[in-house]
Amino acid sequence: MLLSTLLESIKSEPALCSLDYRIIIQFIDLARLLRAQISYTQPYYITTPPAHLPINIHEFLRTSLNIPDETTKNAWAVLNTLVWEEDPAKPQYTLELLPLFLQFGLSRQISFIPLYPPTRTCLECKHTSANITSDYILAELRSHPVTIFTHECGPIPGYSCSLYCRACKTRYYHDYYVHADATKRTYYGNSSPHLQIAMHYYVERNLVEMFISMMVNAWTSATNCARVYNETFMDRHNSIPLTWEYRTQMNVGDVWNAFFIHSLMIHFSENSLLLELPHDAASQAIRLEEAISSRNAFMSGTGQDQWNHACDLCCWIHDNIDGNPVYLRSVVIDGVTIGHPCCSVHNCTTPLDSMRDRYCPDHQEFIRICVVTDCDQPTRSGTQTCIKPTHRALEDYYNQQGKAMFQLRLRLERARARTEHRALESLVPTGLDTIADINNDTEITSDMLCDGKPEAGNRKLKARFGRRWTHNDELCTASCGIILGRMTFYGSEAPNGVRHFLMRMFPTKRSLPGVIWHDNNCQIVRMLRNDPDPYLSSYFDDCALPVDVFHFKSKHKEKDLDCGHNCNPYIWPELRTDDGKWRFNSSAAEQANAWYGGFQAIAREMRAERYNFFLDEMIKRRNQLTFRKLEDKGHAPFNIPRSCLL
Question: Origin, by domain of life (predicted)?
């Protein structure tokens, strides 16, 4: 806006000439923020400003600027063209104006951040109507109060508006639409800057991105994301009217709902799909279940964006004897001790009904069986062991440990309270954080009991009490640090499980990397050699399967001739450069493992489907950062066309 244009407009109205210039500038700024709300007083196809303001907006401008009624009318008549010249899609939310909206706008259902549907004509009717030139105008404007958690301004009370198509009975909200008889809500795409996370709560997507960045780079829990946000904007809460009935404090559920919806919308948009969720679900968690499972199935195996990654650090491109280029890719397979609660039956992957359950729905009968290994006797009422005295002794010891643990925990909490100021001095977790819950997986053996020969002779008894967790997560990491994929191992990190993981990661022989490092490759080679299935035994024939350099030197015995003949990395000259150095970093997984293991405290109580979704998203985001670092350092990262691999 040019100053000359403003002065020329004011000159034509004597009443405005007597106003302080700051009032005039504020009038224009406020009216520009209200342009979306003002435009709803006229048909959508009219692009010029209306001659008169709606009564509620007129009164808001008059009272907030403390100017006479007639002056307000004249100001709009003179300045409306200046207000309308700004791009309505990019309003400038000036924090200095927020108090005026809180004091004078909320009572008139006027929002600092207006939340309207992105369209004023029906999208469904356009898709289904034979007359494609017809416009089905939306009507029946409704609004309801909401709290908007913003990135720059903190929590802001406001109103969300919806419109209705009388032709097809579809109601359009700010970020989705739903037919009156439908069971699904359809999201518009990935363009809305605000997400509805509950009926009366929205989150700005820039804020969600900040939370995700905190999680990826600092292992920040959802609880701490909410805590940081609330403490950052603590002073803003004082300016919100006491009559506002919806909370302005963010909680952990808000963070998780925003995380899942935001990530789902990005995923569906990247794959040119529309996100559809159940409309009348009992909770947001239930509403998201199906979409989360769908995304998990997509990410399994080859789903990561960087699954087909290559760069100078993890791929050696050279010509073969025929002069054709050959791509030798290098990956490292390694396990990380991290997991989620699972069924106590070995290798059972059926999800638990409740996170406090010990068995899945398919194995509920085991609740009534003694927890001592190899014992199939029924339990006594209210206990986990049978009537055998030696088995009861194990449970008595387990219960005593629980009481002792409670006492130690209480003592530690008291000591911690006296030295709380020291907590910031160290990043090392305290003992309180590592003390196990007595309801968690705990193994008790007979040799833990008092001295004396047991009745069963020298036979060692073993019992597992409490819930069980999955064994580990297996990562496939390129030698440059990009994580190509992951898989949860439920029972153990056995060679057959690693083979299954690799075949799921690389479902065709041409997708297999030329070099697959693993600290237990000698056992895998032995298993492949003895497998009677020719397809399985020959699947990795064109791959080098060395043990990584560090483990080969320190963990594998020289007497193990089988390992030395099959898995010594020096066997393959392609793994060495002309000057005798190792071509690939066989320890690339160590840094990725340390980063990945940092999520244990956040993810250990998650349901399986949310656990997988969360960690897949964390890997995806970390890969994006790593890819940019590789570009910056000149390592020429790129993606091999999937059609060449699958």
Answer: Eukaryota
Residues 159 and 39 grouped into a single domain: no
The runs of H, that is alpha helices, within 281-427 are: 284-299, 389-418
Q: Which domain holds residue 123?
A: 111-299
In DSSP notation, 188-211 reads --S--SEEEEETTEEEEHHHHHHH
In a domain, 604, yes or no: yes
Measure the CA–CA gap between 22 and 27, rounded to whole angstroms: 9
Domain boundary among the residues 449, 467, 485 is at 467
Which residue, of 88, 110, 132, is where some domain finishes? Answer: 110
**Amino acid 242: pLDDT:** 87
Three-class SS of 346-372: CCCCCCCCCCCCCCCHHHHHHHHECCE
Q: Could you list the beta-strand ranges (E) of 63-205.
A: 139-149, 155-165, 170-172, 176-179, 184-187, 194-198, 201-204
DSSP track, 600-627: HHHHTTS-HHHHHHHHHHHHHHHHHHHH
355 lies in some domain: no
What is the tens place of the pLDDT at every residue in 560-581?
Answer: 556 656 778 888 889 998 888 8
Give yes or no: residues 230 and 246 share one domain.
yes
Say whether both 390 and 380 belong to one domain. Answer: yes
Dihedral, CA atoms, 598, 599, 602, 608, nearest 10 degrees?
-150
Q: Do 460 and 479 belong together in one domain?
A: no
pTM: 0.87
Q: CA–CA separation, 479 vs 550, rounded Å?
A: 14
Cβ contact 28:35 at 8 Å? no
**Which residues on adjacent β-strands are paired with residue 488?**
473
Q: Is residue 354 part of a domain?
A: no
Q: Are residues 404 and 450 in the same domain?
A: yes
Report the alpha-carbon distance of residue 148 to residue 248 in Å, rounded. Answer: 8
CB count within 10 Å of CB 377 equals 14
Tokens, residue 377: 């006797």
What is the total count of domains within the chain?
A: 4
CA proximity to 351, closest of 608, 615, 604: 608
Residue 124 and residue 136: Cα distance in Å, rounded? 9
For residue range 231-265, what is the model confidence (pLDDT) as tens digits? 999 987 778 888 899 999 999 999 999 999 999 99
H or E segment and range at residue 538 = helix 534-538
Residue type, 606: M
In angstroms, the CA 372 to CA 384 distance is: 9
Sign of CA dihedral 524, 527, 528, 533: negative
Whether 35 is covered by a domain: the verdict is yes
329-362 residues labelled b (16+ CB within 10 A) or e (exposed): bbbbbbbbebbbbbbbbeebeebbeeeebbbbee
For residues 87-94, give the mean pLDDT.
62
Q: Are residues 119 and 96 both part of a single domain? A: no
Residue 231 exposed, middle or buried by CB count within 10 Å (0-12, 13-18, 19+)? exposed
Average pLDDT over every residue of 149-154? 94
Nearest to 431 by CA among 456, 455, 411, 404: 411
Kind and range of the H or E element at 478?
strand 472-478
Q: Find out whether 188 and 175 touch, Cβ atoms under 8 Å.
A: yes
Report the CATH number that the domain containing residue 578 is assigned in CATH.
3.30.420.10
Same domain flag for 442 and 516? no
Question: Helices 252-270 & 222-232, crossing angle to 10 degrees?
Answer: 110
Q: What 3-state class would DSSP assign to 451?
A: coil
Cα 608 from chain centroid (whole Å): 14
